[in-house]
Design brief:
This protein has four helices and seven strands. The chain is of the alpha+beta class. The protein has a seven-stranded mixed β-sheet with strand order 1-2-3-4-5-7-6, sandwiched between helices. The mean pLDDT is about 90.
């Protein structure tokens, strides 16, 4: 997808409806059950609790993340970096932005679900202090795979 070895310009910003086609490319690359365009439109236009971000390299969207902020709790909805650019630190940069946004809203607890087989994502979340607090049996309908529930208790600001 990228990779000419030259210095790149990385930018993280709020997702807009115009970003959805590029986000769908990432979504379809990473997930076996990708969200639809309609799902993203609903999140961006109709859900007042939703906050979505894109990560661009040289103005090309290569990742995105979403969080719902409700009262003092946050829930990660979706988070992905294009497979060709995973394990280069971009996920950490994007996740840091999501966390900082949650902190600005005085979030006390953040949760997410992750496939039990997705150890790379689990390691990323653990770097930020998330711990496994539960398991959802058969959570992923495509494979009936279980999901770990991971939680981060956050300090009041």
């Amino acid at each position: 997808m990228m990779g000419n070895g030259a210095r790149e310009s990385v930018n993280i910003r709020r997702m807009t409806v115009d970003d959805i086609p590029a986000v769908l490319v990432v979504e379809q690359d990473v997930f076996t059950m990708p969200w639809t365009e309609h799902a993203f439109v609903n999140e961006l236009v109709k859900n007042p609790f939703a906050h979505y971000f894109v990560l661009e390299i040289d103005a090309q969207i290569v990742g995105y993340g979403g969080v719902w902020l409700v009262m003092q709790e946050a829930h990660i909805t979706n988070f992905a970096i294009h497979s060709s650019l995973q394990r280069h630190g971009y996920g950490e940069q994007l996740f840091q932005e999501v966390l900082e946004t949650a902190k600005r809203y005085d979030t006390r607890k953040m949760t997410l679900e992750v496939r039990t087989s997705n150890t790379a994502a689990q390691r990323l979340y653990e770097k930020f202090g998330f711990v496994k607090t539960g398991i959802e049996k058969g959570y992923y309908t495509d494979t009936k795979e279980d999901a770990f529930v991971m939680t981060l208790e956050m300090e009041p600001s």
